[in-house]
Specification:
about 290 residues, eight-stranded mixed beta sheet, about 40% helix
Length: about 290
């Protein structure tokens, strides 16, 4: 692995790279509350076939961390990664997990010339997700934590007792055995960097997503549906036991991604890239060999 700072839009971002730079590029976008190093296990399996590129996104790890909530608007997060792709001088395959999926979808929809293929691992397209959140049903119940994170001072509760609150949120009734020992220490190092936890939570505060209270549906906001389509070959890989993102959050995705392939992996949950990296890699490699640009 090679790692170091790179300048994107005049700001410093920390980027990890695995594999021969002459191989097809694969941009790997982490979610909350991870960082670019979260892709190590998967990159070990994919780097013989791809040049894997994993940045710490804005507000995370060692990358630039502005303090203003407005700095975390989706357009700005997508702009960071568009600048990184531009360095490759060719369209890339983009892989996103959790919040990284939001940026990956943004790249595919608003910068289609930069993205050859789109892979999402337990992440959601904005329209099906917003519809599920607005219904007041099971996904709204599972996503009430978003409202808590948006509150002023939520970072302090997450940081208390050596990040016990953050780790509890991280597990969300799912398997967290993979986060222990040296790996937990590495994560705590990243979470402890000045301003980082605020930056991470600001992704939630800046998001326009509306979350209904359970059992009380709200109108779905007007969305520019025609602009929210994914023209590329699209793979959605799902850890079947996810309790943070539910299957209803992807219902109707085919309406926006006509070239969609769905694959479910049993025996894992939201953290499938840690729990079954080899199986996830095999799914990605098999699909990539079949998918046409």
């Amino acid at each position: 692995m090679q790692a170091g700072f790179e300048t994107l839009n005049d700001r410093q971002f920390f980027v990890r790279r695995w594999g021969d730079p002459t191989l097809p590029p694969l941009l790997m976008l982490h979610g909350f509350p991870e960082y670019g190093g979260a892709w190590q296990e998967l990159a070990d399996h994919l780097s013989p076939h791809f040049h894997c590129i994993a940045p710490d996104q804005r507000g995370y790890g060692q990358s630039w961390t502005p303090s203003e909530v407005s700095a975390y608007a989706t357009s700005k997060l997508v702009g960071d990664m568009a600048a990184l792709i531009a360095e490759a001088d060719a369209p890339v395959t983009v892989l996103g997990h959790d919040w990284g999926a939001a940026v990956a979808y943004g790249l595919a929809m608003f910068h289609p010339e930069l993205v050859s293929k789109l892979i999402i691992a337990n992440g959601v397209h904005p329209v099906p997700f917003q519809r599920a959140l607005a219904s007041g049903g099971a996904q709204a119940v599972a996503s009430q934590y978003i409202l808590e994170l948006r509150k002023t001072g939520s970072e302090a509760a997450l940081m208390a007792d050596e990040f016990a609150g953050l780790r509890a949120l991280f597990s969300a009734n799912m398997d967290l055995d993979w986060l222990s020992g040296d790996r937990l220490a590495q994560y705590q190092t990243e979470w402890s960097r000045p301003g980082r936890l605020c930056g991470m939570v600001n992704w939630y505060r800046a998001s326009p997503l509306r979350v209904a209270t359970p059992g009380n549906g709200i109108p779905v906001p007007d969305l520019p549906l025609e602009r929210l389509r994914v023209p590329q070959p699209h793979l959605l890989v799902w850890g079947a036991n996810d309790t943070a993102l539910l299957p209803e959050a992807t219902e109707g995705l085919e309406e926006f991604a006509p070239r969609l392939t769905r694959v479910e992996i049993e025996g894992c949950d939201h953290w499938l890239h840690h729990q079954k990296p080899q199986e996830l890699a095999e799914v990605i490699l098999s699909w990539s060999a079949r998918a046409l640009t």
